[in-house]
């Protein structure tokens, strides 16, 4: 019988069954099975590794490797990141301080660009006065000691200082004790 059923077994004239023709998928499965049999073959009992000390040494080595990997991929980079963040914050603060100084200098330059600014700078730095102006230099009185010995020449001076201080306090004018 010639078959209308492809892939089914055919009976030969001597009674044997003809083998099926193999498809490409079937051939690929057989090849893969042949290749993986040697890899997935179970390990015989006599070939198994039974040394407990060696097993623990391998585990310790694996744990050491794991700790080293965690240190090198997590801990050290995080520490470096924090140090770099602190350095960046310090540089940012320094930059902001320099920007403030730069802004103040720019304001000073713009003030010195005008004639009035030049005149004011000459007055304050060089003591420049315009014709017809009179310069008065007022300095602050230094704090003088008022405690003197209680002997004869010093008692008169102490009385004079006390009276002048009272007059200055009563008049409200700080220069009045200096007036003749």
| Secondary structure category | mainly alpha
Q: Radius of gyration in whole Å, from Cα?
A: 53 Å
Tell me how many strands there are.
0
- Helix fraction? 55-70%
Keywords: Membrane, Transmembrane, Transmembrane helix
Transmembrane segments: 53-76
Pfam family, one: DivIC
Sum this structure up briefly:
Keywords: Membrane, Transmembrane, Transmembrane helix. The chain is an all-alpha fold.
Question: Any overview of this molecule?
Answer:
The chain is mainly α. The chain has a domain at 50-129. The chain contains 4 helices and no strands. The chain is elongated, with a radius of gyration of 53 Å. The chain crosses the membrane at residues 53-76. InterPro entries: FtsL/DivIC (IPR007060).
SSE order and pairing:
Elements: H1 24-37, H2 52-112, H3 115-126, H4 152-171
Defining traits:
180 residues; mainly alpha
